[in-house]
Write a structure and sequence with these properties.
5 strands, mainly alpha, 335 residues, Trigger factor, domain 2, 13 helices, elongated, two-stranded parallel ribbon
Length: 335
């Protein structure tokens, strides 16, 4: 369940790439002509205009600052004439620094003026950075999509019914497999625990809701979350002293196949998050401070409890999980 409290800001890494004309997903005609059953929704794009007067002032400031750091034969360090310094540094490099300085604030203002609500960091593409004219760029990001949860209660009930049938069949198969081939005597069957049955029920409910409601996932949200999953796997492999290449060899797969696998699992997770978030919004489910305090009290280690309480990232994660549990409890009450 995605929770955004403020507009994600462009990172320096992103802004440094702008001048290199990095290609990013855009709301082009080609993208809008996707099949109707596509699981993805297009990115949101906004146009950022940097006025020529502002650009000129910042360009001169950047050039002056950079010129003081270079040293050329025949000139003292910091005393290289501006025109010569500009030729030595190169306009492309200066433009890169100017964009890095101007884009973050311009992006923030344009987002506010357009009343957009990004849930991902932006990616940029350059339309024009011609000297002496306004500079034009486009920012691309994902917004939280509208998810229709019409008749979701019906899908919850259908999912619960499917789970009941699946559990009954599973018990029957387990019983048959435990019979002796010789004397046909039935061996003891270990039944599922209530928690396992509950989890099975939830998985069928989740599957039914996502299948029937078909929420669309914004492209950049999927891209960023898939990248995050890959980074998580890479980190785990590093802890095991295994490279990504070795991991791929062991699984007999290519990087493209791994990327596809991660994308498929990530889009399923995001679809469920979007549905659960929409239900939480409709039912006005919220997590109170009392809810968070109650959870923290279950942690016996006082030092650990205090560390968690003072960790903003952890508390945000906790709030998301507690809200999800409230939605799950609501769904189970309908089943």
């Amino acid at each position: 369940m995605n929770k955004t409290t403020s507009t994600p800001k462009p990172s320096k890494k992103n802004t440094r790439r702008i001048a290199k004309q990095e290609k990013v997903p855009r709301d082009t005609k080609k993208e809008t002509e996707k099949p109707e059953n596509s699981l993805l929704s297009p990115n949101t794009s906004i146009t950022i205009t940097l006025k020529k007067e502002v650009v000129k002032k910042k360009y001169n400031e950047v050039l002056k600052s950079l010129s003081k750091k270079i040293k050329l034969d025949g000139f003292r360090k910091g005393a290289v004439p501006i025109k010569i310094a500009e030729e030595h540094i190169g306009q492309a490099k200066i433009i890169e620094y100017v964009l890095e300085e101007l884009v973050p604030d311009a992006y923030k203002k344009t987002v506010a003026d357009s009343k957009k609500a990004p849930i991902t960091r932006p990616e940029f593409s350059v339309t024009s950075t011609e000297i002496g004219k306004d500079w034009i760029l486009e920012a691309h990001f994902a917004e939280l999509p509208e998810v229709s949860i019409k008749k979701y209660e019906t899908h919850v009930k259908a999912g619960a019914k499917n789970a009941k049938k699946a559990l009954a069949e599973s018990k029957k198969e387990a019983k048959e497999k435990t019979k002796s081939k010789d004397d046909k005597e039935e061996k003891k069957v270990t039944p599922l625990t209530p928690e396992q049955e509950k989890e099975t029920k939830l998985q069928h409910i989740f599957r039914e809701m996502v299948t029937q409601l078909k929420p669309k996932v914004p492209e950049l949200l999927l891209k960023h979350e898939t990248q995050h999953e890959f980074e998580h796997i890479s980190k785990q492999l590093k802890q095991l002293n295994m490279s990504v290449e070795d991991y791929l060899k062991r699984r007999n797969m290519t990087m493209d196949q791994l990327s596809q696998e991660l994308a498929v699992s990530t889009v399923s997770r995001l679809q469920l998050d979007l549905v659960l978030g929409a239900i939480a919004k409709e039912k006005k489910l919220v997590v109170s401070q009392k809810d968070k305090d109650a959870y923290l009290e279950t942690i016996k280690d006082e030092k650990m409890r205090e560390q968690m309480k003072n960790d903003v990232h952890h508390m945000s994660h906790l709030e998301t999980n507690l809200l999800k549990q409230k939605v799950v409890d609501h769904l189970l009450s309908l089943a």
